Amino acid sequence: MSMSTSHATQSKGVLKVGTRLVSQTGALYYIDRVLQRRTEPDLSCVFLATTQDGKKHISKNIYPTEFEYQWGLQAPLASCPGLRVAKDTVPEHLLFTYDFLTEDLLGLARKDGFSYTARKRILRDSLTGLAALHERGILHGDIKPSNIFVDYDLVDGTIKIERAQIGDLEMGSMITPGVNVRGARL
């Protein structure tokens, strides 16, 4: 899917709750709420959005200079189960849309019932995602607990992990084989 941002006009302000968005694939998303708002160095927001069938998604502003590059980086990774990558775009507002996952690892670690089995599952899924990136010569650039997203259920007081994915790939970069990056070598 080719994106053209030459005509994209990012809103001067934050999208309002209830805003209807038509994506590149023709899907309709509605902004439910602003989850995160940053104004420095530029306006950048993360939104909870839903489709008409009630399915939750995350929509996130992407910098104009990064839009094409990031779509080209993330789209080929869509089949990697350990990675939360953009599934759709709204070029008019420079938004990427992602699957919604219940919690990030930072928030989950604060909950009761976080078992050894749950931790192993998160580690396995996350390392699978990281390996998929490195196999393709991609450096994530911002691995931390708040960038590992988890779907889970609470069963008899114990957290049961459905899936875990590394997300926030916007800091990611393709690395030329043999090139050193901050002292690390892929």
Automatic annotation (TrEMBL):
InterPro entries to which the protein is assigned, alphabetical: Kinase-like_dom_sf, Prot_kinase_dom, Ser/Thr_kinase_AS
PROSITE patterns xrefs: PROTEIN_KINASE_DOM (PS50011), PROTEIN_KINASE_ST (PS00108)
Domain Protein kinase intervals: 1-186
SUPFAM superfamilies referenced in this protein's UniProt entry, alphabetically: Protein kinase-like (PK-like)
Alphabetical list of Pfam families matching this protein: Pkinase
One of the record's GO molecular function terms: ATP binding
Membrane-crossing segments per the record: none
Species name: Trichophyton violaceum
Name of the featured protein: Protein kinase domain-containing protein
